[in-house]
């Protein structure tokens, strides 16, 4: 079925802009116990990529609506989804996301107008002049439809090659229109929706390297010549091969110093537990340290729908439980949890205690108890160790014991504070006095 090109913007026909602005204000006034509200307290948005097909899932929508203040359609605004054949625009899925976001007072990031990937097959065979016309028509079609409704648009995505050269990536646009296609796309975009922030977005540009230097030089050139660009997006897809760079903040700052905003646009970090949480903390702290870093978007709500689901890179697990990374982000944003809301910092604290014998001789042994914090950071712990009746403890280190018969209750000496998932241990020397049995380690409690 051929679709009708909607040249009138949705905002012009439905008058939604004012309503969206009002609900956005109401959203940020809520208690500071969600990612979105905590980020708002820092003058930032906290967004997520969203897939229209999951909006009908109750837990997905509930988590999205509770936590996030901005959404990016994960695929629904891409060229193949919106203009599958030339001149025939289809906005059904993207509209679902935008309508949902507006009903919740969330901002919308537009992603993406000109990209070599997820391009419908009719685009690449076009000759240069036709391709230029088609590119501009595509920008006008998308930006016109959502005029006034999109906070920031990724105008051009991933136009630079990976690796050391800092060269442009081969694409139909680059190959046929040359370097100037990026500038042309930005100029067309500015005219199409003057209210939208116009971003260049890329990956492996998160630290200072040849690729980010090339983008930096382009932005610098654009600013010096008055080419309209307002922001640079840093995708920030991290894993063990591509870790959070140590100069992440410095890199964001040097772009900001060119006079553009910076945004973290597709954040995900493969891993789990306290290591993943610590990496998320680094990213949030880097953004907060750069005044022109206006917001962060994670690339999905739940691990189970992540494009890298095997790497469990997001803040909520497949059952929508808050992961240690969630707590780390909320706390880096200065957020506080509701009392009794499991998963928020300061409550729901838990720990486990495990015992091993680390040395053994005929008359005695050394035991070690490892304390591991659960999904929350903890500030103290208590573990009980019950010894066989004959045994006695002659010394204990990295803990403070109190005794009741043969039950030893151990609290921290210096090592009470643990990040989510992190461990410490205490040790002791026991005399066997004829019994070689192992002590029983009871429950661990944390606060
Ligand atoms: C990914 C989506 O998450 C996937 O669902 C899709 O199959 C491929 O694209 N850089 C980008 C995003 O700019 O659009 C990509 O999103 C991830 C990498």
Task: Summarize this entry quickly.
The protein has helices at residues 10-14, 16-28, 35-41, 58-67, 79-82, 92-103, 128-145, 172-177, 180-192, 210-225, 248-256, 273-288, 324-332, and strands at 45-50, 70-73, 107-114, 152-157, 197-202, 231-234, 237-238, 261-269, 293-298, 351-361, 364-373, 381-386, 392-397, 400-404, 407-411, 423-431, 440-446. It is of the alpha/beta class. The protein has an eight-stranded parallel β-barrel, surrounded by six helices. A four-stranded antiparallel sheet has the order 10-11-16-13, with no helix packed on it. A four-stranded antiparallel sheet has the order 14-15-12-17, with no helix packed on it.
Question: Which keywords apply here?
Answer:
447 residues; alpha/beta; eight-stranded parallel β-barrel; 25% strand; elongated
Could you outline the blueprint of secondary structure elements for this entry?
Elements: H1 10-14, H2 16-28, H3 35-41, E1 45-50, H4 58-67, E2 70-73, H5 79-82, H6 92-103, E3 107-114, H7 128-145, E4 152-157, H8 172-177, H9 180-192, E5 197-202, H10 210-225, E6 231-234, E7 237-238, H11 248-256, E8 261-269, H12 273-288, E9 293-298, H13 324-332, E10 351-361, E11 364-373, E12 381-386, E13 392-397, E14 400-404, E15 407-411, E16 423-431, E17 440-446
Parallel strand pairs: 1-2, 1-9, 2-3, 3-4, 4-5, 5-6, 6-8, 7-8, 8-9
Antiparallel strand pairs: 10-11, 11-16, 12-15, 12-17, 13-16, 14-15
Helix pairs in contact: 7-9, 11-12, 12-13
């Amino acid at each position: 079925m051929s679709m009708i090109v909607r040249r009138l913007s949705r905002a012009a026909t439905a008058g939604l802009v004012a309503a969206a602005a009002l609900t956005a204000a109401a959203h940020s006034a809520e208690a500071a116990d969600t990612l979105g509200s905590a980020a708002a307290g820092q003058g930032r948005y906290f967004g997520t990529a969203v897939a229209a097909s999951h909006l009908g899932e109750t837990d997905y929508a509930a988590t999205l609506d509770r936590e996030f203040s901005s959404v990016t359609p994960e695929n629904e605004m891409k060229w193949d989804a919106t203009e599958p054949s030339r001149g025939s625009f289809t906005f059904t899925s993207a509209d679902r996301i935008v309508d949902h976001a507006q009903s919740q007072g969330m901002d919308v990031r537009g992603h993406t107008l000109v990209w070599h990937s997820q391009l419908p097959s009719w685009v690449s065979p076009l000759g240069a002049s036709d391709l230029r016309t088609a590119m501009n028509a595509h920008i006008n079609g998308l930006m016109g439809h959502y005029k006034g409704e999109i906070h920031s648009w990724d105008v051009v995505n991933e136009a630079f090659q990976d690796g050391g050269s800092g060269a442009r990536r081969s694409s139909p646009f680059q190959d046929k229109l040359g370097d100037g296609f990026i500038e042309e796309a930005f100029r067309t975009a500015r005219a199409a929706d003057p209210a939208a922030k116009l971003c260049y977005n890329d990956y492996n540009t998160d630290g200072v390297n040849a690729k980010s230097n090339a983008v930096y030089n382009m932005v610098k050139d654009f600013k010096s010549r008055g080419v309209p660009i307002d922001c640079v997006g840093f995708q920030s897809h991290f894993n063990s091969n591509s870790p959070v760079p140590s100069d992440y903040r410095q890199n964001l700052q040097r772009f900001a110093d060119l006079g553009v905003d910076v945004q973290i646009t597709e954040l995900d970090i493969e891993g789990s537990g306290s290591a993943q949480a610590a990496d998320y903390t680094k990213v949030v702290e880097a953004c907060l340290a750069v005044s022109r870093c206006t917001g962060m978007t994670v690339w999905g709500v739940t691990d189970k729908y992540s494009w890298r689901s095997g790497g469990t890179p997001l803040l909520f697990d497949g059952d929508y439980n808050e992961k240690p990374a969630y707590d780390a982000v909320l706390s880096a944003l200065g957020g506080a949890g509701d009392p009794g809301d499991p998963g928020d910092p300061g409550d729901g604290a838990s720990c486990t205690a495990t015992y091993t014998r680390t040395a053994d001789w005929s008359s005695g042994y050394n035991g070690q108890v490892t304390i591991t914090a659960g999904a929350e950071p903890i500030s103290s712990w208590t573990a009980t160790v019950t010894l066989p009746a004959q045994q006695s403890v002659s010394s204990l280190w990295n803990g403070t014991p109190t005794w009741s018969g043969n039950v030893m209750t151990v609290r921290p000496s210096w090592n009470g504070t643990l990040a989510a998932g992190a461990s410490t241990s205490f040790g002791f020397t026991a005399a066997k006095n004829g019994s070689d049995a192992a002590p029983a380690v009871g429950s661990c409690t944390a606060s």
